[in-house]
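Hi U.,

Before I forget, here's the chain from the pilot set. I'm dumping it here mostly so it's searchable later in email.
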Amino acid sequence: MRYAYAITTALLVGGAAITMGTNTPVGAQTAQNDERAMLAAAPRAGAPMSFADLTARLQPSVVNISTKQTVQVQNNNPFAGTPFQDFFGQRGNNGRPVTREAQSLGSGFIISADGYIVTNNHVVAPGNRSAVVDSITVTLPDRKEYEAKLIGRDPASDLALLKINATNLPFVTFGDSTQTRVGDWIVAIGNPFGLGGTVTAGIVSALHRNTGQGGAYDRYIQTDASINFGNSGGPMFDLNGNVIGINSAIFSPTGGNVGIGFAIPAEQAKPIIDTLKAGERVQRGYLGVGLQPIDENIAASLGLPKNVGELIARVEPNEGAAKAGIQQGDVITKVNNTPVTPDNTLSFLVANTKPGQKIPIELYRGGKRMTVTATVGQRPPEEQLAAFANPDGDAITEPDAGTGEQATRDSLGLAVQTLTPQIQRQLGLAPNVRGVVVGAVDPSSDAANSGIQRGDIILSANQRPTTTADELNAQVRASQTSNRPVLLLVQRGNGAARYVGVKLKAR
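Structure:
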């Protein structure tokens, strides 16, 4: 997944980025996609002969957005400490950070005659932690430039609202993306690669597309219309001229368009933009759980069908889920009577629930279905959620290989040993970690294919704690009897534990 915007470091090497616009005249102070005005301009449904009239009315409302950023770059001199250090790098800087300028380019669209503009958050956000956005410039199709004020932004949904000091601007309005169907024609307008107003057309390829990036808003309209770097923040129009999506990202192994672009649906974007315009903070529901999708092996190990529910990998203390009795290893199948599926993820359903509301949650635990009632909390800032996730660290020190149980080695492809205090210190684990440590992995086993490595800690098997090799072996034998994969809870270093369904070797 790549954001469909361009960020250039041309100024780092003394170059310059060129942004060109078009000479499209600015329209009158009426909505450029007003239903009556668009009636004559819209091509015949299902078989458009041309998008020219539609484009002529909509293009004046689409703008180019650029930022100037100050970035600190570490001055790494490979010859530091040698007689040649003054001939390379910057003399006398002694490795201290050097300040440079950078730019980012993207698109946006005007939603009011007095200059409110919608775009993606990543278009106007700093490029990295060491960058600061100094200014945001909006360029209209007639090449008029305005310095923009950031009214508000919402990183979770990747949306931002800007304001320029202008009047009588052409503008467009949001449509109802819930009525959009796969196969509908759409038109995308933006500024790919900073070239200025560019129009592409295609169809809606998929709805509610989950890209696997996670989060409450991983739910897009997919299109085959050409989307490239610089299109981010630009509008996706239906043939009535309504904004049904905001072009945001592309899927591409090459970095260029391959016919898979993603847009934030209007049904998600409009309420957030309205909240930002009112100067309020976007409120979302939160349960306090870490989630993991259920792959084929995990589903088989639990005796569940595929594509049903999501697995709870972590429960935050004192949050709604913990207070409701939800546990690690539970599979959530329904939220407020709505099934949890790849199209309706748990994150999406909970995030769109009002904080403070009590909702029934149906779950599967230990072969039994049950329902609990949870009070939805207030979703913390994204930075705090990232800290909760505690992602895997770098390389870990591996323990000495142990003997383990031969049966476990032969059937599971793993040799394990007890997690002793010495190994625990060697791996830098928290004192409360309990499990067995992987001493060796058979490279031909499904465990190896599942990403388990030497030095990983197996906390449980089939949702039963495993503090000894015998306890692990007992669960392996149980999985052999039931002819199911064994469900392991695996932790690497002090990172978040994850569930892995591992197929056993044939006996």
